[in-house]
TrEMBL record:
It comes from Sphaerisporangium siamense. This is Multidrug efflux pump subunit AcrA (Membrane-fusion protein).
Length: 146
């Protein structure tokens, strides 16, 4: 399977990185990056009349059976470029931007709310969580209502 990658993301993607591909029907398949082209190519104009955009061709090998009939289909690819074990995570939307480029979260205990400064680590955009330090394990973190 081949996908086009935004050139700004290319430096973070390597051969052997694990991926999860979400297919048009919502099913997911795991796989591995087999090749990242060293050269960006121009992707033809989009159907909405937009101008051609550069993209880096990436080849993905999917586990299990091959996927058929995906020519030009839109898929989502989540690439695991780094992994940390035994970390505390909170929903990304729980982060509150603070002055100086720092973050905080609001913890809730009973009817008590407290803003707690945190330091962020890895972001997992696929799961919508971020690694944090500064919050006690088991603390309830406030998340805005959608």
């Amino acid at each position: 399977m081949s996908v086009s990658l935004d050139p700004t993301m290319a430096p973070t993607v390597r051969r052997g990185d694990k991926v999860i591909v979400t297919l048009p029907d919502g099913a997911t398949r795991s796989g591995t990056i087999a090749r990242v082209s060293p050269v960006a190519q121009t992707v033809p104009e989009s159907q909405d009349g937009g101008s051609p955009q550069p993209a880096v061709p990436v080849t993905i090998t999917l586990k299990d059976r091959p996927v058929t009939a995906l020519d030009q289909a839109l898929v989502q690819v989540d690439v695991t470029v780094e992994r940390h074990a035994d970390v505390l995570t909170v929903p990304i939307v729980a982060l509150l931007a603070q002055p100086g480029g720092t973050f905080a979260v609001v913890t809730v205990a009973g009817n008590q709310r407290r803003k707690v400064p945190v330091r962020t680590g890895l972001f997992d955009e696929g799961q919508g969580v971020v690694e944090v330090t500064g919050v006690d394990e088991g603390a309830q973190v406030e998340v805005p209502v959608e």
